Backbone:
């Protein structure tokens, strides 16, 4: 008798543990990334922008990841670059998502309007489709060249380039939501159009864009690195993964693997951690609230 | 079940247009072919709209491009400023600027490079085929690999190879092309010596390719220059493999999802019930599953074009990407504006092809055709 009552209790506890583990495990790399981004530059063993050793020291010993063609410490540079790349991508993802929501809501609600505004909003909707057709790298390259390179201008350019996807996602949802009865009901209670859009339409149309934000983060990391790789990013001694990989590419061609490898691994890890693990975390949370 | 309703004037069967005379025949022809004619007709509109966007985009970014070009030199005079401003087309009101810019663009005049003094349109026209060749080869290879890989996943879902492919498709977009390229250069060139050095399009010793069409591979074949052809192929293998590996996952992810849905759909069951062969079943499922992937391949082409620009720098192929980078480094705004517009035109043409392929595969996607649930 005792055995039959004990068995389910154990199973319940193990299910809870399993759930905690499923939720907790992906959290560890995410936290690690945040910690490295925040404290990384303070922890570096060497100045990431100074020549600290002869060039091309192989990894090991005093220089864990070796030194690059200038004689800078690759471990210090990779670690220090984390803050820049992660901060730029985070702000970009937030700005692109927020901007995309505003744009998507405006277009989605205004599209059916008659007269000039309706035509204008329908036109913007088509323009967003056109934007999707052109490679983001190309647009970013040209705009960065015009605006000059600094962290604020980089963030602005990336946000503009990546905003169109978010705006499209929100707009699609708005088109589905705006004819719902609760929107008409809110309208009849005398709420202003802007007020009911924010209070009733936004909560029902924001989810796809929010879920896509980690992907935008990944795209922003890759775009920043692509620009750095092309030599259009921030000026040279600044530690940045793309620029480091570009510098290491020439070394890789003559058989020195380490200068490009470590920043590459850091970049892929950052993208995978955010773009793949955070959605899993969000899904886990939603699953719990439903269950 | 869905039923396809065609509005009377465009009756696809031509039943309402069976009157005699040339007008009716022409009307019938128009009804049958309207879908692709109208789609092609809007292309110039799209290009013009993008030209306007590009115009405002480069003017919306903060900073004064004139000052950027004059750079650190504090010693510029008002005359210098006016000269650069005029060369950039930034003088006059915004309306005048736009009018001038659009008029030039319509005449295929992209301006004169600030740095070399040569026509931007001419310089780009010379370089486009080389970049386009790389991107198109990669696109065809990517689509072919995705189609074949999806068949493996659907037909042998439990094999280890299918599991591996599924895992790969989930990685969609995580590894940028240039990282893969650097890794491959290290492994296949520096370590294994399987491919030639990533410098240039051919070995220095091979005879030069005469220009016929501008596409290097095609020209080498046309002029019977087999040595140069082989060398070009050898130099393109690595960039193409990198592009295929880095982008096939995007297509595969979508294709697997829609193929699995199509295989369980009623049309497949109906065909199976009529005793159709396995090949017919698969072909029918593919036809119904393809449109999302075809749409995605338009986006993938954008990735490949952007990737070509980056990989050209890495593999020393310097065509359009090389031109753009040089323009960035010399702050040649006119050349960059031209580069942006030309890249957009190439992408928009590919989107046109994507739409046409989808309309051909699925008549319900054609304009003027209304599909409703019966």
Residues:
């Amino acid at each position: 008798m005792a055995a039959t009552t004990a068995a389910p209790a154990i199973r319940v506890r193990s299910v809870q543990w399993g759930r905690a583990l499923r939720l907790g495990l992906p959290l560890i790399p995410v936290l690690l990334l945040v910690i490295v981004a925040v404290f990384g530059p303070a922890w570096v063993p060497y100045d990431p922008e100074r020549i600290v050793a002869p060039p091309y020291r192989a990894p090991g010993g005093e220089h864990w990841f070796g030194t690059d063609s200038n004689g800078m410490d690759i471990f210090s540079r990779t670690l220090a670059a984390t803050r820049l790349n992660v901060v730029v991508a985070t702000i970009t993802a937030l700005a692109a998502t927020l901007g995309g929501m505003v744009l998507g809501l405006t277009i989605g609600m205004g599209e059916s309007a008659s007269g000039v505004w309706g035509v204008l909003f329908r036109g913007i909707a088509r323009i967003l489709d056109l934007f999707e057709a052109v490679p983001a790298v190309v647009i970013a390259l040209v705009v960065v060249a015009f605006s000059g390179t600094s962290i604020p201008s980089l963030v602005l350019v990336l946000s503009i380039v990546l905003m169109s996807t978010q705006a499209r996602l929100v707009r699609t949802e708005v088109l589905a939501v705006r004819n719902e009865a609760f929107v008409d009901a809110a309208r009849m209670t005398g709420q202003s159009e802007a007020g009911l859009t924010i209070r009733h339409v936004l909560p029902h149309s924001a989810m796809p864009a929010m879920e896509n934000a980690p992907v935008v983060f990944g795209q922003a990391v890759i775009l920043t690195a692509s620009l750095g790789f092309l030599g259009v990013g921030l000026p040279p001694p600044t530690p940045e993964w793309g620029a480091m990989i570009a510098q290491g590419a020439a070394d890789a061609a003559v058989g020195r693997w380490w200068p490009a490898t470590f920043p590459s691994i850091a970049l892929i890890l950052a993208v995978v951690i955010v773009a793949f693990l955070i959605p899993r975390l969000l899904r886990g949370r939603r699953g719990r609230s439903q269950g | 079940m869905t039923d396809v309703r065609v509005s009377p004037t465009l009756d696809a069967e031509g039943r309402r247009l069976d009157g005699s005379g040339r007008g009716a025949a022409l009307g019938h022809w128009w009804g049958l072919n309207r879908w692709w004619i109208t789609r092609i007709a809007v292309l110039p509109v799209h290009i013009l709209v993008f030209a306007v966007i590009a115009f405002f985009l480069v003017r919306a970014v903060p900073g004064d491009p004139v000052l950027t070009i004059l750079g650190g030199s504090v010693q510029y005079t008002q005359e210098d400023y006016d000269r650069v401003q005029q060369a950039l087309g930034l003088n006059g009101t915004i309306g005048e600027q736009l009018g001038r810019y659009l008029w030039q663009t319509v005449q295929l005049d992209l301006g004169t490079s600030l740095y070399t003094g040569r026509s931007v349109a001419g310089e780009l026209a010379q370089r486009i085929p080389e970049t386009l060749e790389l991107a198109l080869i990669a696109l065809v290879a990517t689509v072919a690999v995705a189609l074949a890989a999806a068949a493996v996943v659907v037909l042998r879902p439990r094999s280890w190879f299918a599991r591996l492919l599924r895992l790969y498709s989930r990685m969609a977009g995580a590894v940028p092309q240039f990282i893969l390229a650097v890794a491959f250069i290290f492994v296949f060139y520096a370590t294994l010596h399987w491919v030639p050095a990533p410098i240039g399009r051919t070995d220095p010793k091979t005879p030069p390719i005469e220009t016929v069409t501008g596409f290097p591979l095609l020209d080498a074949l046309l002029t019977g220059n087999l040595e140069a052809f082989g060398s070009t192929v050898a130099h393109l293998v690595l960039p193409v493999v990198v592009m295929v590996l880095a982008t096939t996952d995007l297509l595969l992810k979508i294709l697997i999802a829609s193929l699995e849905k199509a295989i369980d759909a009623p049309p497949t069951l109906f065909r199976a019930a009529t005793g159709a062969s396995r090949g017919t079943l698969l072909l029918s499922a593919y036809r119904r599953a393809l449109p999302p992937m075809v749409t995605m391949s338009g986006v993938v082409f954008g990735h490949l074009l952007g990737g070509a620009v980056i990989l050209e720098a890495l593999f020393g192929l310097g065509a359009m990407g090389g031109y753009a980078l040089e323009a960035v480094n010399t702050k040649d705004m006119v050349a960059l504006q031209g580069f942006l517009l030309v890249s957009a035109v190439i992408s928009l043409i590919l989107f046109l092809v994507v739409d046409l392929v989808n309309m051909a595969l699925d008549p319900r996607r054609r304009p003027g055709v209304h599909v409703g649930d019966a």
Remarks:
- The CA atoms of residues 284 and 290 of chain A lie 10 Å apart.
- Confidence is low (pLDDT under 50) at residues 1-6, 287-291 of chain A.
- The radius of gyration of chain A is 24 Å.
